[in-house]
Each structure stands twice: as C-alpha cells, then as structure tokens.
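Issue: ligand-bound run for magnesium ion - logging full I/O for the record.

Environment: standard queue, default settings, no custom constraints.

Inputs:
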Amino acid sequence: MTTAVYFDLDLTLLQYTDDFETIFERSVPDAPDGAYERYVEVLFETFDDLSSTPYREAFSAIVSEFGVDSDPNTLATRHHERELEATTVPESTRRALETVAARRPTGILTNGALAMQQAKLSRHDIGDCVDAVVVSNDPDVAARKPSTEIFDVAEAALPADEYIYVGDTYDEDIVGARRAGWDAIHVGDDGPAGDAARVESVEDAVARILG
Ligand SMILES: [Mg+2]
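Outputs:
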C-alpha cells in the first residue's frame, strides 16, 4: 500500500526573516497610512476569488486609491523580489523533506500565486526533489485550502492509496486535509491544544511518517 506525503509551503517548509508589513514597506517606501491594510484586504480577496494575479490587483488598488506614484506591475515585480529575499528554508527542514521524498511519493500543496510559489521553490532548490507541486491560484487548479477540491487535485497529481498532509495552519491545513479523508500532521501552534496530530517540527513530522 502506498502512502503519499504532501507538505504545505509557507511557514511549514519555508520560513520568513521579516514580517509581511516590513516586506511591503520595502516594496512601497513611504506608503500612505492605511495602504498596507488595504493591500492585505485586496490581496486576500483576490486570492479567495482564485485570481491568477492577486499581487498586481492588490497593488492596483493601492495606486488608484492612495495615489501612489508608480505602476502596479512595477510594484508587484519589486514586491515579488523583496518577498523572495525574505524567505529561507532551514537545513534541517530540507534534509527532512529529502529524506521522505526518497522513500514516499511526495508533493507540495500550497495556497498562493503560481509564479510566486514556483519562484520560492526554485530559489531554495526544493521543487526538484518532489513528485508534484499543486498551487491554489494556478488556473489549472483554481481551488484553495481548506476546500476538498484542491486535495482532489493533489490526489490526481500523485496517485496513492493513502495521503498525509503536513502543514502549519490548523483551519486550512489540518481541517481541510481531514475533510478530504487524509491523515494530517500539524507543525503549528494554532488550533485546539491536545490534538494528537501536533508535532514540533517538519523533522518530527517526517520521523512520525517514516516511523
Ligand atoms: Mg502555511
């Protein structure tokens, strides 16, 4: 019997050296008051609407509503670079991912924009060791966690008898995976305390999967 393993990307495999507001301020220096909050609001709305260009739409709102003197495409491109620069993959996480990928069908299942998520994988050289990458706002996927549809897409991409999902966000990752009939391992500290699925790290998750 085959068990496939999927990992969440942001804040599971990938960590950030700075918070999102700091990254935004590097992309839009001297942003007017309220611009960051509006950016976040539009970004999440467009993610939820399954837009393939959520960053450009969020920066378009900032330019038109706050009079920021720049082009939305320029801002989105700059932000893409600033966000990438603020990402890191701990060596212990990388080794754990490579260990499980050598032993089980393994994929990455992430909510995000296709170009941004692919750029993160390629910057940290972690896309090549996995067998499948499923990104919510890829027009060919067009479904976001916690909806069951994105887990169905992941199953089709990596046929197996059973699935395990490793993620940091309880309501999206753990609830979504279980609703799709998957086992789940939680590497975050949100959600109910005492859930048996919770572990401290990706290394611990992999030890549990292979143990
Ligand atoms: Mg995450």
